[in-house]
Write a structure and sequence with these properties.
Elements lengths: L1 H14 L6 H7 L5 H18 L40 H11 L9 H19 L15 H4 L8
């Protein structure tokens, strides 16, 4: 939230607008809340690792996909690892499955720019329909807090 506060101030400064609300300023600048940007980066890192495997880092050692999924263009739904600790549940490889599975199917055979554009569209749609500057849970496309993550209806886009 501290970084988000900085972004709030910077948007005021860039636009020289100290009256409009944060959501309006983000829209004017065609920006997402920082947490959504981080989620986009999480997704793109995973996709790059799947699309262009590196010799020194095999992402498949850290994630698994369900073989019985119908998600086209991917290896299926990413399976969840559960964590008993509230701290470790925010680590990359534990939060990634929830995030991956909340997005529409990703075809990793498409270009990175096409994939990123599609994910950005999903995130902007979520931003315009759900973002509330007074509720930190809406700064994410899929809130990681224990209260939200235990809700029976996780948001799907």
């Amino acid at each position: 939230l501290r970084l988000e506060k900085i972004q709030r101030r910077v948007t005021k400064f860039i636009l020289n607008d100290y009256v409009s609300d944060y959501r309006s300023r983000l829209s004017q600048l065609n920006l997402l809340p920082l947490m959504s940007e981080f989620e986009l980066n999480d997704m793109m890192f995973c996709i790059k690792c799947l699309k262009f495997p590196a010799r020194h880092f095999d992402i498949n050692q850290f994630i698994t996909f369900s073989a019985n999924s119908t998600r086209s263009g991917t290896h299926g739904r990413m399976t969840h690892s559960h964590s008993s600790s509230n701290i470790s549940r925010h680590s990359y490889f534990l939060r990634l499955p929830r995030l991956w599975n909340s997005f529409p199917p990703v075809d990793i055979n498409q270009s990175l720019s096409s994939i990123k554009s599609r994910l950005m569209n999903v995130l902007f749609h979520h931003f315009t329909s759900h973002f509330n500057p007074d509720c930190p849970c809406t700064f994410h496309s899929l809130c990681p807090c224990s209260k939200c993550s235990q809700s029976p209806h996780a948001p799907h886009f």
